[in-house]
Amino acid sequence: MDLNFSKEDQDFQSEVREFLDKEYPKHIKAKMDNGDDLTRDEVVEWHKVVAKKGWMGHSWPVEYGGTGWDATKRYIYLRELALEGCPMFIPFGLQMVAPVIYTFGSQEQKDKFLPRILNFDDWWCQGYSEPGSGSDLASLKTKAVRDGDHYVINGQKTWTTLGQHADWIFVLVRTSDTGKKQEGITFILVDMKTPGVEVKPIITIDGDHEVNEVWFDNVRVPAENVVGEEGQGWTYAKFLLFHERSSIAGAPQMRRAINSLTKRAEKIFHDEKPLAEDPLFISKVAQFHLDLDALEMTELRGLAAEREGKGPGPESSLLKIKGTELQQRLTTLALEATGHEALPYGGPYGFENQEVMAPKAAQSVASKYLNFRKVTIYGGTNEIQKNIIAKAVLGL
Amino acid sequence: MNLNYTEEQELLRDSISKFCSSDYDFETRMKAVNSESGQDKELWKMFAELGWLAVPFAEEFGGFGGDEVDLSVVFEEFGKAIVVEPYLANIVLGGGVLRRADFAESASYIEKLVSGEVQISLANYESQKGYVLGNIDTELNGEGLLNGSKSTVLNAPNADHFIVFTKKGDGYSFALVDKNAEGLTLSGYKTYDGFTSGDLVFSNCKPVAVFEENNALEVLEEVIREAIVCICSEAIGAMEKSYFLTVEYTKQREQFGSSLSKFQVLQHRMVDMFMETEYAKSFLLKVLATDDKDEKAKLTYGLKNQVARAGKLIGEEAVQLHGGMGVTQEMSIGHYLKRLVSIANVFGSADFYLKKYSES
């Protein structure tokens, strides 16, 4: 066993660092380091920088324009990006719909969509959950009825992240009501500009507009946009969910964040001594670091298994549960450390343009804490993840 | 031993409870939160008319002569409806200093506070100075002018007067400052839990009065301890409502062909929420029923820790069990979480009070 990177991998690591040094746009870096939100254009700009380098398809096979990297290289690459504080890739095209398209899609679909995803010409979003179908996703009701060369879609999706920016949406629709509820689900790709598609914002408790309802009112979609076979959508959906779950552990981002909090704690005073010297705080930070070590190593084990050709399976639930729990512990720790300085709130009913005395770093802490309540809910709640492990791993 | 509330206290609880359920629904609350002042001035008048603003003041000042238990009752009921009207700021903090201070004009300010004519905020915490109450920079100089700053002064944009805790010579004092005083700059803002707050900067600002020159720190400590009992009572009300709303929600939310409330794993989580609420209540009663001053202080620090932990757990679990709906602005449950974590962290964190408890 050996945890050290080979000479080749070390060279690759230097190459990634050099790329970031030269190409990571300074104005975007400044905003990210400051904890500011990026505009849509800036998010696109960052993806295009990566696309130009040819590194967008870091998890894709070479034949579709992917880098063909092994698991170690992919790990090094994503870790370096995270440690540098780069924006997260918008996963809906790149990591979610693309694997479904190149695994189950037609040649025409591959030719039409994959290059545009790789170049971030299209912004994708996800149409899975419905108001009555959350954890029980297979009970979804949005209906698609065949009408000649088209399907006509009616219904409502919800929790569509960044749907307000999207060009395309992949949607799970019901094409049949007979048999088991998992049967009769179809995976279809819809152009957001199609008449009858309407996006309505959902404001979350942090005051942000990140998620949306997406309504379909007699939306006519060409039948060629169905991926794979009609009625087989549930199989593709599950395949996609495993991909989604393994990509949301976020260990390197957390390492960076805990280090920056620890640094900030040198200047935070609750009592006479700086918080960074408080034994209770120190113990929480240490506990966090070692739990993070275990998470990272579990992630590496997953990558090693993948390198041996075992695709992500139910084990990705392990990462989702622990990763999101740690994310929440981190935002909680930051909120506790920041105390009353976190109170001023720039949300929709904050007083605009008022100077606030609390340090800049304190001002996004509460929003972040509140925003991160979602992570144990989205991508399949952590309760559902435990059901999956119980059933698929423990055989219960 | 007697762990019962008095008949008067039960009546007070009933009247506030009735008000909250009939006149202070979630929509009314959010209207106040989203208004510029962050409060409903009509309701404040109504609070005055109902006598609620008079609860803790002595009868000679037009008050009810109530005690900490009465205040606790008020706050527990407020917590169930996460009331944002500025009772804590005016009656417990500002009024709390006036009630205790050796200050000739206290009576006239209290009368106006009780009648709802004026609002008075206490300004003691400063940015990056932490929660040790005497650890401040604001100073009253030899010419009687105030210099320094205060942060997160509750209800500051609505206050007519500020009671500013300040250094003076080798000790501390309270300085009474009018909102329009020269040399005072105010920045108001909303806080994440839906309240209104602000920062104050004093630059050679002349107070209208200076009082309690020997005993200011002791008075402040007592006021903050009482405020802790109040917000912990509020948190307990909010916890009770949170688990209640969660139980109701899981009963009506159907997934996998059955209501969520039928899943044993979720039942146990709700049982935990209920249990933590009950233990927090027990701790509160212990504080309320303790007479010895030092013992009561120690227990109050313990209460802050207990409630911070329980409140966070219950608030977070309530949101989790509501699923996606729990994190939306339009549902009330997330607002309970915001208030609960705010209460957990104002006046100092759970860790800060754990240390104070063990050192007392």
TrEMBL record, chain A:
PANTHER family attached to this UniProt entry: ACYL-COA DEHYDROGENASE (PTHR43292), ACYL-COA DEHYDROGENASE FADE29 (PTHR43292:SF3)
Species: SAR86 cluster bacterium
Necessary cofactors: FAD
Residue ranges occupied by any Acyl-CoA dehydrogenase/oxidase C-terminal domain in the UniProt entry: 231-394
Protein name: Pimeloyl-CoA dehydrogenase large subunit
Single GO MF descriptor: flavin adenine dinucleotide binding
Family: Belongs to the acyl-CoA dehydrogenase family.
Alphabetized InterPro entries for the sequence: Acyl-CoA_Oxase/DH_mid-dom, Acyl-CoA_Oxase/DH_mid-dom_sf, AcylCo_DH-like_C, AcylCo_DH/oxidase_C, AcylCoA_DH/ox_N, AcylCoA_DH/ox_N_sf, AcylCoA_DH/oxidase_NM_dom_sf, Mycobact_Acyl-CoA_DH
Keywords assigned by UniProt, alphabetized: FAD, Flavoprotein, Oxidoreductase
TrEMBL record, chain B:
Domain Acyl-CoA oxidase/dehydrogenase middle residues, every copy: 126-205
Cofactors demanded by this protein: FAD
Residue ranges annotated for the Acyl-CoA dehydrogenase/oxidase C-terminal domain, each copy included: 229-339
Xref: Pfam families: Acyl-CoA_dh_1, Acyl-CoA_dh_M, Acyl-CoA_dh_N
Entry keywords, A to Z: FAD, Flavoprotein, Oxidoreductase
MF terms (GO), sorted A to Z: acyl-CoA dehydrogenase activity; flavin adenine dinucleotide binding
Domain Acyl-CoA dehydrogenase/oxidase N-terminal, first and last residues per copy: 6-117
InterPro entries membership: Acyl-CoA_Oxase/DH_mid-dom, Acyl-CoA_Oxase/DH_mid-dom_sf, AcylCo_DH-like_C, AcylCo_DH/oxidase_C, AcylCoA_DH/ox_N, AcylCoA_DH/ox_N_sf, AcylCoA_DH/oxidase_NM_dom_sf
Family membership noted in the UniProt record: Belongs to the acyl-CoA dehydrogenase family.
Annotated protein name in UniProt: Acyl-CoA dehydrogenase
Source organism (scientific name): SAR86 cluster bacterium
